[in-house]
Amino acid sequence: MSERTVLVAEDDAHVREALERALRFEGYVVVGVRDGAAALAGIDEHTPDVIVLDVSMPFVDGLTVCRRLRARGDRTPVLILTARGDVGDRVDGLDAGADDYLAKPFALDELLARLRALLRRVEDPEVGRLELDDLTLDLASRDVNRGDRLIELTPTEFEILVMLMRNAGVVLHRPFIYSEIWGYESDTSSKALDVHIRLLRRKLEAAGEDRVLHTVHGVGYVLRPASTETP
Predict the structure, then answer these.
(1) 2 pLDDT band (50/70/90 cuts)?
(2) What pTM was estimated for this model as a whole?
(3) Which of 11, 63, 131, 222 is the 20 to 30 A CA-CA neighbour of 18?
(4) H/E/C letters for each residue in the chain?
């Protein structure tokens, strides 16, 4: 596998430099910047494979950077760094299109594991096509459509949808989804999965289409044809 490039946007010089050293030691090419404006410029110049964004940065904050990337169709995986205990930042980050979040202070091993999990989602694309009613998903191109409408998904939303489509009609429990999607020990009591599901459902129904993604309260989620929807 060729070297992977990580862009780290963090205004705290000590944190940024420590991350740069650790990531280079792990074999990554690292681009470090101190604010959101420099992050946007660095993304355009270096085309990173994965992005680490601090939420609180001068000039342009991390959430704005993420929203701008998604608005222009950039699907590069994004990991946001948030203040410990600030649930609002975490939910807002996922709502802005981030794929994962990590609260400060964090363990370096966990950050590296999360980056590996994000990169696995965009490497070695599978070939094939999944279908459910008018919902289609191309594994190679990563295109998702409802009828003729193209749906833009983040890498994490895409992987969740792949799992649900492959198991259509089967209720997938929350701990199983966390384990399969994130690939590391995760806090299944967090709201990360709920936010991803909410955003995914919103995108799948954006043009008024029938609901196919359902919540089984206290258990998990299931994808089923609209024709089998139960009251």
Answers:
(1) low
(2) 0.69
(3) 63
(4) CCCCEEEEECCCHHHHHHHHHHHHHCCCEEEEECCHHHHHHHHHHHCCCEEEEECCCCCCCHHHHHHHHHHCCCCCCEEEEEECCCHHHHHHHHHCCCCEEEEECCCHHHHHHHHHHHHHCCCCCCCCEEEECCEEEECCCCCEEECCEEECCCHHHHHHHHHHHHCCCCCEEHHHHHHHHHCCCCCCCCCHHHHHHHHHHHHHCCCCCCCCEEEECCCEEEECCHHHCCC
